[in-house]
Amino acid sequence: MKILNKKIIAETNQIKIVRFEIYSPLIASKGNPGQFVMVMADSHSERIPLTLVDRDSKSQSITLIAQEAGFSTRRLARLQAGDSLFSILGPLGQPTEKKNYGKVILIGGGVGIAEIYPIAKAYKKYGNQITVIVGAKTKDLLILRKELEEISDSFYVTTDDGSAGSKGFVTDRLKELIDKENYDFVYAVGPLVMMKAVSDTSKEKEIKTAVSLSVLMVDATGMCGCCRVTVAGQTKFTCIDGPEFDAHEINWQEVIRRNNMYIDKEKHICKLDKLNKNEK
Amino acid sequence: MKNKVSPKELNSEERIESFKEVVLGYGGQEAVEEAKRCLQCAHPRCIEGCPVGIDIKKFIFQVAEKDFKGAFFTIKEKNNFPSICGRVCPAEYQCRKYCVLTKRNSYCASKNSINIHFLERFVGDYGIDRGLQLPVRANSKLTAKKAAVVGSGPAGLCIAGELARVGMQVVIFESLHKEGGVLRYGIPPFRLPRSILQNEIDYLKKIDVKIKLDTIVGRAITLDELRQKFSTVFLGLGAGVPSFLGVKGENLANIYSANEFLTRVNLMHAFEFPRYQTPVNIGRHIVVIGGGNTAIDSARVALRTQVINGLKPDVSVLYRRTEEQMPARRLEIEHAKEEGIKFRFLTQPTGFFPDGESFVQETESLECRLGEPDSSGRKRPVAKEGSNFKIKSDLVIIAVGLQSNRLLTSLTPSLKTDQWGNIIVDKDMKTSVPNVYSGGDVVGGEGTIIEAMGMAKKAAQAIINSSI
Questions:
Q1: Which CATH number fits the domain that encloses residue A139?
Q2: Chain B: residue nearest A72 by CA?
Q3: Can you give the C-alpha Rg of chain A in angstroms?
Q4: ipTM of the modeled complex
Q5: Residues within 8 A of B (CB atoms), A 252-271 only
Q6: Tens digits of per-residue pLDDT, A199-217?
Q7: Where are the alpha helices (DSSP H) in B317-424?
Q8: FRET label pair with A206: which of A127, B255, B269, B413, CA 20 to 30 Å apart?
Q9: Whole-prediction pTM value?
Q10: A163 plus A66 within the same structural domain
């Protein structure tokens, strides 16, 4: 499928976040907030899940946002407008529930900010009052700030280094908010450790909390069980039962450990990649 | 009685260094010699043992007469994929079990029974080498009809060919980025070389079958939308979701389902990491749990990943019953043993223990004895209390079967399923939804390639009959 547009939307010395618009009529017509797609950059690539950030039925395209986190996302980020993805499959997973919860806090961390955008839009549409907290390492990595600020009833920014908004983590802000006022629902997307921290924080006040898990997958249609997680003591497959789960019921330790299974391989391939680049 | 002719095989040292095919097959002279052993029974029972009813007696006679081309078309009347089935059919439980040379009441074929599968494979490969294929006989009443086939596994590939050959316009929808289903992601290349599969796919393309990869029916296209665009839909979705044991520690890192492990290696080429970028971890002490072909395939693939990565091979298969009760093909069990895979029978895993942090390090099991027969007629394994023991295992592959994948059926309430989630069909393989047929594992539960093909052929015939 052809890449119609590509834009680097955030960049530091180490990290790049890239937005793609990809021609994909079927996914553009069927995708819903909360769903994801599986992508292969080329015939030798890994299959990686990416959240469906937006879709446009007029141009029959979908928007995906990827942060260069490892080899596969870097490979993807090298593609340019006019290039084609080797494979894209979707929409996958259960769409988010279209529901009026009341007062909702949406939290996006890092590239997870991109993933709460479609959810925030949907929740707004269904009459929720939405408070959005976005967090990033530093100012330059804050994405979709304007878009999210526009649709939220309250909007907060946190950065690890204090270069924008308040210095600290999204959970610091979350704790402040829920200590002051009652909220009905929390929805978080970001790194696993951040989501776990959000879950721990909201659990103290017993506020129902959902997270969208981004874990390792292979086929993403329920066939392999790579993405299995324990939720409320039961094994669930993130690809077909999720990606959204009740955060307070997730065995976080297990999810985090399983997701780090290939760290050695990742280091190895990244080193090779660097060597190749230096040779060139 | 002449001695049976065994095909040449790669020696086990050479085998485990690569994914090269293990059984090298007959040459023409060997095939003729083996075919001449056939007694050409007046009432051949082997044919009854074949799920698709190949005229085995006739094709073997043709081989004996060196009429290989004739034999090819005899098989092709009933079996679309002789080169595939000749390699993967559990012939010792099917045709060969009913061969008159098998001892009566044996649980599987005697070694001396005719090597029907090797002959079939020889004939199939002969056909491929010479580009033989069934002729297309387009029926003018069918050329305007369109058929959608969902899934490109054995059932889907078979019915696509059947319908295209009578002139229907066929489109296959496949969710993965490559065709073949279980023939691609499941069965390893050392049992089924990919060139054989590719030959079947190329043939379908040649007779104008369109294949849409990366398309998930149910989500990207609904069944109702397919029904509006196509006069007939066939669902060959496959068996689906891997089962787990439900024991402690099962989700530790480095515990794989067989489907995941095999898909990473077979489909995603993880054994060629980092040239291919999908990783798979390599265990020093690998444990595989299960007794079916998938367990044996996983064990043999795992052993090869060890050897290719310069490790000493160490793979054990744990099975809760005895060797005789293993559902795996006898030939594969023998090959696995030759390659150095260890077997522990009457062993029931009860939990997995980590190395402190996240990775599995030990498998705990109970010893079993055989008790009364269960509903399957096999003696039930009964755990001996207090017999717990642990074995070292830094990578575990669980191959204890599959449950149906409800992705499409849950999104399509009108599609009726049974208590196991398998699609319900009538004798013509028709589902509860008009003009929608189904076959393969999504109907029958975990079965064989040839059974899936048999169902697909039945559906094809019903579709053709109702369309004329």
A1: 3.40.50.80
A2: B277
A3: 18
A4: 0.94
A5: 254, 257-258, 260-262, 265-266, 268-269
A6: 999 999 999 999 999 999 9
A7: 330-338, 407-411
A8: A127
A9: 0.95
A10: no
